[in-house]
Specification:
Shape: elongated
Largest sheet: none
Number of strands: 0
Structural class: mainly alpha
Helix content: 55-70%
Number of helices: 5
Length: about 110
């Protein structure tokens, strides 16, 4: 089974590879002083990110200047200058950092 496939919702939840992954993740988080519940949240985030990334086209469709202007008008928050333009790797790293910072905050 490819590594990304083990993150699929169709992967057997109790398969040895899935349990091994969760065990290693849980050990890593516990060793870092994070709560055990963080592992499930973190794994859910990673799963969602992988599935989202797998569903993106290799090459985005070309956008004309007219279409870009239309998108900017229709979606000003998403298309505006205040929205960071990050690569998928940067988005993933940033989101993991934010999750881990949240886990470390006392409830």
């Amino acid at each position: 089974m490819p590594a990304a496939a083990s993150f699929s919702p169709r992967a057997p939840a109790r398969s040895a590879p899935a349990l091994s992954l969760m065990e290693r993740l849980l050990r890593t988080l516990l060793d870092a002083g994070l709560p055990a519940g963080a592992a499930d949240t973190l794994l859910s985030h990673v799963t969602g990110f992988v599935l989202q990334e797998q569903n993106q086209p290799d090459e985005p469709p070309p956008v004309t200047a007219e279409r870009y202007a239309e998108l900017c008008e229709r979606f000003p928050l998403l298309m505006g200058p205040s929205m960071p333009r990050l690569s998928q790797d940067e988005k993933f790293t940033r989101s993991l950092g934010r999750l881990c910072a949240g886990f470390a905050t006392p409830a």
